[in-house]
Specification:
PYR_CT (chains A, B); globular; metal ion binding (chains A, B); Aldolase_TIM (chains A, B); alpha/beta; homodimer; metal-binding (chains A, B); 8 strands; eight-stranded parallel barrel; lyase (chains A, B); TIM Barrel
Chain lengths: 313, 313
């Protein structure tokens, strides 16, 4: 691996559980519970919360209450509310709710784009142009998430040159921030480091966010590699909620509290109050009705102390 | 973090599940099943297998068949059989079984040593001197594992200076290899990198092995950090078996197949045939009677392909 790394002293977390986590849950979380949960999250020091998705209620029934959620939550200074939108109609609905940021999604690989969005990357870019047009006067930050950046569950390898070409098109179009997504947990740390160095060198002014899944246990190792390359923005999901409908058996997103725990232990400032975050994480099994993959909430922080057992126990 | 890293092109795995994994299981795995399992493991390209422990049957009833296991397994060229021994008596029993290597254990922290071994570190060192004496003529490689190197569940931080002092005593005594153990998953990647760089700089001729637990999800991130510092030897446990009786809720050792999967994906040669290893890992739930934490065996390798779903599904 190459020259000395910048290793940012501070990182920013975008909490995606309310959108990426809830969308594939079996149970609809009632609107009031979602609002209470997001309000609790927004007091923990997270920089940004992806609160919901303004898609058609038929496509993602769990998020059919998008507008009620965004208008119901308490807005706090320093916590940006971002939402996913698929098209101009969703953009208009989102803007009517005064969101701070809009997140668009396209796939780096054609077959994933067709399966997930029913669009080729070219069609996604056309859609994005229309969305940029529709949001221009709002001044809202427009981010785009590039799925299957590190590999496609249908096609396999997605070459770095292809990813860079997609990123270039996004930036040329006027997209302000780009999220590189390891949608089904195929990335490895060497690959992550290489791609992150490449995008940071080529587009030093663009805020890049990294989005990992812990499908094969490499979530935190990949986040470490991205950070070593100079990345300071991460998507993550409380409790490790989430997954991908096209990769059965796949576990969820990298877990927010485990990510915060690792970076804080390393002396990196995440801005998050880990104890407060762990309290919210501990309420998750009740909220969604099942156990979640997050580990720190079960094991306790690495600073946890145990009583010395009796020698004759 | 400091200067460019050596990042070894090859690493070696020491499979510890038959010892560190089985010792805390509720069920005794019958000797014949242990032998079949270790024989299967020894065909996968693992460099070393910690097959059992020659402790008193009362202390670790699950490993009461130590001599039968070691004399029953097939020995293969290139696969060293190592065993844990606590004292001279255990050493003599192990040597009688023609082991290739002996592993000793002491704690970096006093209270963990007293709780786990009923010995202070000083008493452990006296024991080790007697063991070195007893094994001198055998020519068998003597390794020592230093528990709680990255933190103690009772005392908290274990300062690096104290760890370096313990390592120095071990090496001065004649110990040939040292394993730095994160016994209850308290290590973080920055700490790991710092300590690994320190020991490799100070004792470049000593083989150092790193032993991580995945208690707080950082197992692979810590292994990555150690490798970046120049470490090429790792302990790991099939399926992520293992744990620590003094840290309830703690998950097991870093998972061998997940570790091999990560490093192979990065282009690092582990010597292991991952497909063969995954086949053995898939038999684990039957062998021990419960599910295990390993993720790649569930999700498949990152090269796994899925069929493109029907667009109208």
């Amino acid at each position: 691996m190459s020259q000395p790394s910048p290793c940012p002293a501070k990182i920013e977390i975008n909490e995606v559980a309310p959108r990426d986590g809830l969308q594939i849950e079996a149970r609809f979380v009632p609107t009031e519970e979602k609002i209470r949960w997001i309000d609790a999250l927004s007091t923990t020091g997270l920089r940004r919360i992806e609160a919901t998705s303004f898609t058609s209620p038929k496509a993602i029934p769990n998020l059919r209450d998008a507008a009620d959620v965004v208008t119901g939550i308490q807005r706090r200074e320093g916590v940006d509310i971002t939402v996913l939108v698929p098209n101009v109609k969703g953009t208009e609905r989102a803007l009517a709710c005064q969101v701070d940021e809009i997140n668009l999604v396209m796939s780096a690989s054609d077959s994933h784009g067709l399966a997930n969005l029913r669009m080729t990357p070219e069609q996604s870019l056309e859609q994005f142009a229309a969305i940029l047009d529709a949001s221009k006067e709002s001044g809202v930050f427009i981010n785009a998430s590039l799925s299957t950046t590190f590999g496609c569950p249908f096609e396999g390898d997605v070459h770095e040159a292809r990813v860079l070409e997609r990123v270039e098109k996004l930036i040329d179009l006027g997209i302000q921030g780009v999220t590189l997504c390891d949608t089904t947990g195929m990335a490895n740390p060497a690959q992550v480091k290489h791609l992150c160095e490449a995008v940071l060198e080529r587009w030093p002014e663009t805020p890049f966010t990294l989005h990992f899944h812990n499908t094969r246990g490499m979530g935190l190792a990949n986040a470490l590699a991205a950070w070593q390359a100079g990345i300071s923005r991460f998507d993550s999901s409380l409790g490790g909620l989430g997954g991908c409908p096209f990769a059965p058996g796949a576990t969820g997103n990298v877990c927010t509290e485990d990510l915060v725990h690792m970076f804080e232990a390393m002396g990196v400032d995440t801005g998050v109050d880990l104890d407060a975050l762990l309290e919210v994480a501990a309420t998750l099994p009740d909220l969604i009705g099942h156990d979640v993959p997050g580990q720190v909430v079960k094991a306790g922080k690495s600073t946890r102390r145990y009583a010395i057992p009796s020698v004759h126990a």
